[in-house]
Design goal:
About 40% of the residues lie in helices and about 15% in strands. The protein contains 5 helices and 4 strands; from the N terminus they run βαβαβαβαα. The chain has a 4-stranded parallel β-sheet, sandwiched between helices. Strand 3, helix 3 and strand 4 form a beta-alpha-beta unit. Bound molecules: FE2/S2 (inorganic) cluster.
């Protein structure tokens, strides 16, 4: 059989997972041996309220095609409103990224509890499939860098919650 010479695009995804819920959900999926795409590099955080928008911009600068933020469900955050703040930041960041030519589907926010191994797999699978369809990240990396660059009045440190 002839080789087409074209490799299928496999997106690189960075996933910020709350330690108390989504990370445990990922563990549950793993323990149950539910298969899911291996495209996600998981970063465990104490709470999604800790995910500075600059972390997301840095992920894109470093070659990610998409970013996931997975939080405790509303009312379950161990730090009261960290998940809600993360959700608000996500909405604001989407508007900024859209102006830079970055599609909304590249940054997904969702809620996954410790018991939702199935939902974790569903979110990962949907995200990877959406990114496969979008293709490689095509945003303006110089503008993304400008946004994330602290020394030039970028996004860092702004109170947007
Ligand atoms: Fe899980 Fe805050 S402790 S999102």
């Amino acid at each position: 059989m002839a080789d087409s010479g074209i490799l299928a695009f496999e997106p690189k995804v960075v996933g910020f997972l709350c330690n108390w819920c989504s990370y445990a959900g990922a563990d549950k999926a793993g323990a149950a041996q539910i298969p899911y795409p291996p495209n996600v590099n998981i970063i465990r955080v104490a709470c999604t309220g800790r995910v500075d928008p600059v972390f997301i911009l840095k992920a894109f600068e470093m070659g990610a095609d998409g970013v996931l933020i997975l939080a405790c469900h509303p009312g379950d955050c161990h730090y009261k409103e960290g998940n809600l703040r993360a959700f608000q930041r996500h909405r604001i960041l989407l508007r900024l990224l859209r102006d830079l030519g970055v599609e909304e589907e590249r940054v997904r926010f969702d809620y996954v509890s410790a018991g939702e191994g199935d939902k974790f797999v569903k979110v990962i699978s949907e995200t990877v499939e959406a990114l496969r369809n979008l293709g490689p990240m095509n945003g303006d990396s110089s503008k993304i860098h400008a946004l994330s660059d602290d020394s030039h009045g970028g996004f860092h440190g702004q109170h947007i919650a």
